[in-house]
Amino acid sequence: MLKKILLFLMVSLTVLSADDYAYSREWLNLLYYEKSILGYKSPAMEDGFFVTAQGRTDPQAEYAESLRLVLENDRQFKTKFPLRYKYIARYNNLKYEPVVQANTDVKRVFLAYPSRYMRNSASMFGHLFLLLETDSGILDSQILHFVGDSGDSTGFDFAWKGLTGKFEGRFIQEPYYTKIQEYNFLESREILFYTIKLSPEQIENLQLHYLEMQNTFFWYYYINKNCAFFIGRFLDVVLDSDVIDVPLYLIPAQATEKFREADLLADERLVPSITKVFDQWYSDLNLVQKGQVQATLFYPEDNSAIIQDEELFSIVEYMLRSNKESANLLSESDLYDQLQQFHLPEMWLYLPATENIKKLYTQSAGLWGSTEYNWGGFFNLVHFSDYEQFNELEINTIRLGGLSVEKLADRTLRYDLDLAEINNILQFNMIFPTWSWSARSMFSYHENWSTNQEAYTGHAFNLRNWGLLYGMIGINYANYDTLGKRELDRLDLFSGLKLGWRRNITKNLKLRVAYEHKYNTDYQSAELIYKYYDLLGKLTCLNSHDDTIYQIGLECLF
């Protein structure tokens, strides 16, 4: 009886100060509370994430009950919510007796940013996950990420549910080896790794918090409450200050930038795409060498296919191991014995770390003027530019929410809205027969509304790393000519053709020449692009049967 009275007094006295901690940054972050004019609410959806019926909307009641369970030494609470128990014990100067242990082999945590994957709309802006590196090395480590379960949804249903938050999102762990294989080879993504500045205790807290997150799910929204948002909020729980808020929209590159600006990233590593490494190497070969490579990859059981180049052995080994059917044939051939003799490192290990952490560009703005006495300005709400990595030949851009204003020669204004413009022009070869494609949806207003909706597909070829040649066919449904910047007589369906060539002249200068047949008009164009830090200077010449126009522009990436 005396014990119960003492416990009652302890709880009563402690609850008097519950307001202080129940509305503290630490407690609100632990349960993912968000504040609005109506009060607090957690987006965690399962009742098992809370210990009270009103826990989703009442931080004070949730804390008071959690404290009571800690004072009663409730083992189930300590097991289910190990980090809440630790924080409560520390705040109230209680003896901390954990019943759950974190993996002490985890020594470092990386923030990983795989670049965009253009074949999946949900991954078109990249991904964000954590890599927990152990003493055994990266290959035996786990990744931790937030994933939306789309089930069997496809097409419009997939897009609609992702935009309206109809997919369940959960925190999960997976082996690093299988995920890097998927990203780096199957999806041809480059991956940036950043060492997060975490103390040993913060690394322990991060693992304890992951156990708590197995008790709930969150609704997944493409635009803001996505992998980037929840990985950021997850890290906020163990950091000393908040990095991620609730934005109107958030993409992985922007979340990464927030951590860089907060000085929480120690260094940067790059894992190059194995397919991109192979493409560049393959494009330098002559026809005989290419035939030998094809025989090795497509017919590994043919022991006559012998390759002498050590770099190729390493690439071929990785590619064969990444394909189950080829791997089975490989193990039965003499080629496997040849590969084993080299003992080469795997191609997917990251490059050396650098403390020079590059900024990730996600927006752009600029000005331009032409010899037609037209000039204008533009801003792109989301812009992934292929000019970030200026030396690459491939054209891989995403532009969303593009707004522009043009002053015409007669002093009237034209307003353009680009809902989306996507270019995915990748080099084709016999090993990776990749299709290229582009799409654009835009509207224009000048006295009347006009539009251009287009889709193109084709192939691009790397001319021995000297230039990229591409050809594409497609359609335009339009009454506005985006090249000649003119309104058409009527809204109609047009067939189209694009032929282009792109070449790196120096490390800061590119040349692009193109022929396009669009809107029943032939256009020839040439463009020089010069990059100086975050600025792009562009000089363009556009020729048609009506006129030749010269345009100069300046674009800032940020």
UniProtKB/TrEMBL annotation:
Tell me where in this chain the DUF7843 domain is found: 24-89
Q: Where are the transmembrane segments?
A: none
Q: Where does the Lnb N-terminal periplasmic domain lie?
A: 99-238
Q: Tell me the keywords, alphabetical order.
A: Signal
Q: Per its record, how is this protein called by name? A: Protein DUF4105
Which species is this record about?
Candidatus Termititenax dinenymphae
Q: Name one Pfam family in it.
A: Lnb_N
The domain of life is Bacteria
**Is NADP one of the keywords?**
no
Signal peptide start-end:
1-17
Q: Which InterPro entries match?
A: DUF7843, Lnb_N
